Amino acid sequence: MVLGKSSGWFSVLEYLAEGSLGSVMIGLVFGMASLFWLRFIYNDTLTDFSLALTVSYIAYYTAQEEAEASGILTLVALGMVFAMSKDTHRAGGKQSLHEFWEMVAYIANTLIFILSGVIISQSIFSIGNFDDDTGRSWGYVFLLYIILQVARTIVVFAFYPALCYFGYGLNWKEAIIIIWSGLRGAVGLALSLSIKGASGDPKYLSAETGAMFVFLTGGSVLLTLIINGSTSQLLLSLFGMDALSESEETMVNYAKNQLLRKAEEFSRICSGSNNPFDWMTVGGYATCIKDVCEDTVWPPCTTNHGYLEIDDMKTMRVCFLKATREAYWSTFNEGRITKSTISVLMESIEEAIDLAKQGLHDWNYISTHLKFPGYYKFFSGRVCPPWLTRWFVLKKLQDSCHICSAFIHAHRIARQLLLDYTGDNGNAAIVVGESEVEELEARNFLENAKNSMPEIIHQTESRQVTFSMLKSLDECLTDMEKDGILTEKVLLHVHDLLQNDLEKLSRSPPSVRIPKPGDVLSIHPSLGNLSPAIQSDLERSVTSMLKTPDCALYTKGSKMTSVWLIGNGSVRSKRSPFPIHYPVDSTYPRGSILGLYEALVGKPYLCDMVTDSVALCIEIKLESIMSVLSRGNGVEELLWKECIIVVSKLLAPDMFKKFSMQEVRSIVDERSVMNTFSSQEVIETSHHSINFLLSGCLRDQSTGQVIECPAMLPCSILSESIPSACTNITGESSGSYSYSKYRVVTPARIVRIDISAA
C-alpha cells in the first residue's frame, strides 16, 4: 500500500499469514532443532554461546531475507521455545549466557549510536542544500523534541486516573517523573536507519528524506539524553523521592554497625602483628562507619547488640520475602527445581511484596497454581488415551510437590535468617508465625499427595536424595583437585563420569511407577483372597484410569454399569441416597470398592461419587462381577461382606467417620454377622448393635411402615447421633421408634454389627 500497490482482502490475509504464522513456524523449527542438538551437550558454556548466537542469526536471516517473513517474530518464537524447555542451557551456563547476551546487547547499542552518527555526518556532507537549511533543520529538531514531551504528557495524564486506581498506584510526583524520564535511544535510531536504508528512489522515498529521518531522530535522542537525562536526578531530589525512609535509615545504621563489628574483629586480629602501622591512618579511610563509632580513636570498640530493629511490619515482611526469594534462586541454581517451578515461586514473591501490608500472601498465590484447572477433566474422560492422561496428571502433581518442597525449604531458611538479623523482635515473631502457618498448609498438601499418590512423593524424594548425593560427590572431587592428589588426566576422567550421572538425572529423573491393575487386585484384602483363575479373569477385563480431583465416577440414579476399585487416592460421596435431604460427606480411601452393593442388588447408583484427590480408579464391568458370582465357592458371601464397608459409611456416616478404612474393615470382619430371612419371619434387633438391611423388605410391627433396602434399622446406641430418618421408609415417618420387631415382607439379607465396644 505504501508503494502504491492495490491489495484485496485475500492478499492482505495472505501477507499477514506469511508475516506472522510463517515467522512463528520458522522460529519453532529452529528452536526444536536447537533443543535436539542440546540433548547431546551438558554444562558446556562455550558451545551454548556459539549455538545461541549462530541459531539466532541464521533464523533471523532465513525469515527476513529468504522467506520474506518477520525476522523479529522468528526470534521471539525461538526464544519462547528456549524458555519453555527445561533442557536449555543447564547448570552454571545460564548465568554466563545471560551475561553474554547483555554484552552483545551493549555492543549492538553502541554500534547503533556510532552508525547513526556516521550516517548523519555523511548525509550532511553529501546533500548539497543541507547547509542552506541547517537552521530550519535544527528548528525541526527542537520542535520535534517539544512535541514528544507534550505527547507524552497528554498520554500520561489521560491515563492518570486509571494508573492511580489500578496496579501500584501513582501520585502526581511520579507522573511528572514518568513524563520527564522518557528517553529515546537505540530503538528509534534503529528504525530510522531502516528507513534510511530503504530510501533512494525519488518516486517513493528520496535519499534526502531518508537522511532527514535519521537527523531528526538522532537530534531528538541527543536532546532527551542531554536535557532529560542530566536533570532527572535533580528532579528526584527536588521532589524528595530519593530520600531514605525511616525503615531504610534503620537498615543503613544496622549495616554500618555490622561493618563496625567487622572492623573491631579485624583490629583484634591485626593487633598481634609485629609489623608497625598507624591506626589513625587506617581509620581515616573508613569514613563510612565514623558516625556510628563510639570512640574517637582507633582501633574501634562497639557495644551495639548488632540486631536489626524494624518497627514497620511491611518492611519486616518484605525483608522476609526477599530472603525467601534468594533461597528460591539458590535452590534453582543448584538444579533442584525446574524453570517452571521457579517461575511460579518468583511470581508468588512479587505478588506477596505488593500485599505485604496485609500479611504474608505468597502461599495464597501458590495454592491457586496447585489446583487442577477445569480442562484437566478432559484428560480423565474416556476419549483421552490413558498414557496421555497419566503424563499430564502426573506432571502437574509432580510440579506441585516440587513447588511445595521448595516453599518449605525456602521459608525455613528465611525464618532462620530473619531471627539471626533481628533477634528477639516482636514484629519478627509475628512474621515467623505467619510463615509457620503457611508452611503447615504446604505440609498438608504434601501429606494429602502422599496419601493419594505415594508414588509421587517417593519419586520427588528419590530425585532430591540422588541429586544431593551426586553434588556431595562433586564437592569431594573438587576438594581432591584443590589438594592436588589427582593428576589432571584422572581428574578430567572422573569429572566426566560424574557429569554424565548428573546429566542422566536431569534428563531422565526417576519415573513414577503407577500400580498395575493386577497388582491392585492381588493386594486387596478381599479380592486378593479369590482364586488365581478368578483374579486372572478380572485382570483381563478391568480398565485402569487416573482421575483428577472433582471428577465424577457416577451419579445418583444412573444405570449401574461398572464397579470401581480405588487403587490410590480417595473418593467422596455426594447427595444422600435417601428420599429426604441428609448430608453425606463420607470419604472412601484406597481399597474401597464402590458400586459393588448396587451390582449385587441390581439397583441404580445410590449417590454421587466424585474424586477427592488424584485417584487411580480400576473399572470393573458389571458383566465381570456377574461372571465372578457364578463361580460359587463362597465368592458371593465374600463380595457381600466387602460391600458392607461402603454401605456402613454411606448409611451411618456420623458413626463410622471416626474410624479409618482399616478399622472399619476390622470391625466388619470381627464383629459382623450376616443372615438371610424368608418371607413372614419375625426378627428382633439388638439395642447394642447396628443392623443394616441389605436386600429385601421389612414391615415395622409397631407402626406398620414398610422399610426397603438399603436401610439402617434404628437402635438405642445410635438414637442421639443418627436421625431416625436415615432408614429408607415407604410411607409416613413417625420420627421415633419404640419397637425393634420386624416382619419380613420379601426375602431379606441383614447384617448385624456389634459396636458396643467400639
From TrEMBL:
GO terms for biological process: regulation of intracellular pH; sodium ion import across plasma membrane. InterPro entries: Cation/H_exchanger_CPA1, Cation/H_exchanger_TM, cNMP-bd_dom_sf. It is found in: Membrane. One of its GO terms (cellular component) is chloroplast envelope. One of its GO terms (molecular function) is sodium:proton antiporter activity. Keywords: Ion transport, Membrane, Potassium, Potassium transport, Sodium, Sodium transport, Transmembrane, Transmembrane helix, Transport. Residues 6-236 form the Cation/H+ exchanger transmembrane domain. SUPFAM superfamilies: cAMP-binding domain-like. It comes from the Eukaryota. It catalyses: Na(+)(in) + H(+)(out) = Na(+)(out) + H(+)(in); K(+)(in) + H(+)(out) = K(+)(out) + H(+)(in). This is Cation/H+ exchanger transmembrane domain-containing protein. It comes from Capsicum baccatum.
